[in-house]
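Tokens in:
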């Protein structure tokens, strides 16, 4: 359609544009407490509302007649307003003060659009700039225009989801038949969470013949939130740099170079050598390297950035690509090595209990986190990955079978340090599978250490507790884990007589518990002899004839004898 509505058959579309532009003007006026506009075609004729609007847009205080009583007073106000706008670079060659006083529909709508383009969208050729912007912000919505692509509500919902994550997560499956409801819901979230007023009615946005300037005006209201989010992300990626804007802070190429290095570590090299004095070289190399390492399309030229002959919106469009860029395989190896992981879910787990670990990618550049968990049957398990923000992720999985599991953690298609991890998953505690051995199960001597061995390798995950109860005294055993799932329990009896030795695995008695232990001052010599074999004594293999066998016999506790 033409830039501004003028044909009689398009009266309805003119009404949409009038309503949208009036609501936009009132949103600006309300922020400064100025009186609102009822009729955009008649309320500007005194010049007062127009000048109040200019004050709200520029933040400047203008001197004019606030209570004009004659046509000449009104013309003076309008002349002053037009002179001010011309000085601001707004082309008013086709417009006169008489046009505004007469309520010329086409020219007044054109004037308001120029104000929107200048002060709200803040770029020339707003249609193309906004189209480029939406294509990088919500690429999955496949935006090609500001009319039919917005009718279903999916594009608007995608935009709202980008600004308010989690608000419309399934925007891409919204039905065309529910267009008005889709748009209404998205506008409601925008108004409640982002304070963005609904500048046009949902059924107008759902109209295939909707005015594109109206949709552009409404969509551009999201720009402030989007650019603020972009600035927050850039500051997080470059915490040691002072980044206040999307324009001059990037003109010397230093921040751009550091951003490329932060997202594709090792790609730039010696960043300490970067100096503002070589701005053109910095920007030229950054544009090239970001394209090769991150797939960022160089939408701007070196001259555009260095001389800042681009708007904030155009610079934001270029920089937003860094958020979604993916490190190429040539540079990916450097990024994964800067990740680190932690948490019990990387070493052990229990059947039926959630295992967790974290992955920190804050210094690892851009990439996708992929976690693959395989159980003992080579079956893939589901892992839930939650983005905690600032490059940290929490991974949760639920083991269903015991045995060794393999956990692969990859960033930018490369294994992080330590990956893949071997995770030992145990079943629920089963005391019946504990194996107990050792002389201390049956005999002991007062004042002499006694020892038992407890093997829980097949008994699931649990807690081990052991105690011994004598005629007069009770004591806990000292427990020492000397291997995975293998423990030593030690005690020193203080009195003679029969003792009861209790061994529990997760509060359940192990087979044979309680054990009857005879504690005597004088035990049979055979009970006190300990034999150990050196490297030549191996009872599990056949020894050759004539082969020497070493055997150590310890009789220190056995008394006199031969």
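Residues out:
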């Amino acid at each position: 359609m033409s830039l501004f509505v003028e044909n009689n058959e398009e009266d309805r579309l003119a009404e949409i544009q009038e309503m949208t532009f009036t609501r936009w003007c009132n949103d600006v006026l309300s922020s400064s407490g100025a009186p609102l506009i009822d009729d955009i075609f008649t309320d500007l004729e005194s010049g007062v509302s127009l000048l109040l609007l200019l004050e709200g847009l520029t933040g400047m205080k203008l001197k004019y007649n606030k209570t004009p009583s004659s046509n000449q007073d009104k013309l003076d106000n309008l002349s002053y307003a037009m002179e001010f706008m011309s000085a601001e670079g707004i082309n008013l060659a086709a417009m006169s003060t008489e046009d505004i006083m007469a309520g010329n529909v086409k020219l007044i709508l054109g004037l308001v659009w120029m104000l929107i383009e200048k002060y709200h969208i803040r770029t020339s050729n707003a249609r193309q700039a906004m189209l480029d912007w939406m294509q990088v912000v919500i690429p999955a919505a496949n935006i090609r225009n500001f009319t039919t692509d917005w009718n279903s509500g999916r594009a608007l919902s995608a935009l709202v989801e980008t600004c308010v994550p989690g608000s419309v997560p399934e925007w891409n499956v919204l039905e065309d038949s529910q267009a008005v409801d889709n748009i209404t819901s998205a506008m409601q979230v925008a108004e409640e969470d982002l304070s963005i007023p609904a500048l046009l009615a949902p059924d107008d946005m759902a109209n295939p013949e909707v005015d594109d300037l109206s949709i552009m005006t409404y969509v551009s209201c999201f720009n402030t939130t989007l650019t603020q989010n972009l600035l927050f992300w850039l500051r997080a990626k470059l915490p040691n740099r002072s980044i206040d804007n999307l324009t001059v802070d990037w003109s010397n190429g230093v921040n751009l170079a550091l951003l490329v290095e932060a997202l594709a570590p090792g790609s730039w090299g010696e960043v300490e050598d970067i100096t503002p004095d070589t701005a053109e070289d910095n920007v030229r190399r950054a544009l090239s390297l970001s394209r090769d390492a991150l797939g960022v399309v160089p939408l701007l030229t070196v001259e555009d950035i260095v001389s800042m002959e681009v708007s904030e919106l155009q610079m934001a469009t270029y920089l937003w690509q860094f958020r979604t860029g993916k490190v190429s395989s040539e540079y990916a190896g450097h990024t994964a090595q800067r990740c680190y992981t932690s948490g019990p879910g990387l070493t052990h787990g229990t059947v039926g209990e959630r295992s967790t670990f974290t992955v920190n990618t804050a210094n690892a550049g851009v990439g996708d986190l992929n976690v693959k968990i395989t159980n003992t049957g080579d079956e893939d398990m589901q892992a839930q990955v939650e983005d905690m923000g600032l490059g940290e992720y929490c991974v949760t999985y639920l083991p269903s079978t015991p045995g060794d599991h393999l956990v692969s953690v990859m960033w930018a298609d490369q294994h992080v340090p330590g990956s893949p991890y071997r995770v030992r998953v145990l079943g629920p505690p089963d005391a019946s599978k504990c194996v107990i051995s050792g002389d201390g199960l049956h005999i002991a001597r007062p004042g002499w250490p006694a020892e038992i061995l407890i093997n829980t390798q097949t008994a699931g995950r649990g807690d081990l507790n052991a105690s011994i109860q004598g005629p007069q005294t009770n004591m806990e055993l000292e427990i020492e884990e000397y291997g995975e799932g293998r423990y030593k329990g030690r005690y020193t009896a203080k009195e003679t007589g029969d003792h009861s030795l209790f061994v529990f695995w997760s509060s359940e008695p192990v087979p044979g518990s309680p054990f009857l232990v005879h504690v005597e001052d004088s035990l049979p010599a055979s009970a006190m002899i300990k034999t150990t074999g050196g490297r030549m004594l191996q009872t599990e293999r056949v020894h050759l004839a004539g082969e020497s066998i070493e055997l150590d016999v310890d009789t220190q506790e056995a008394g006199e004898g031969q």
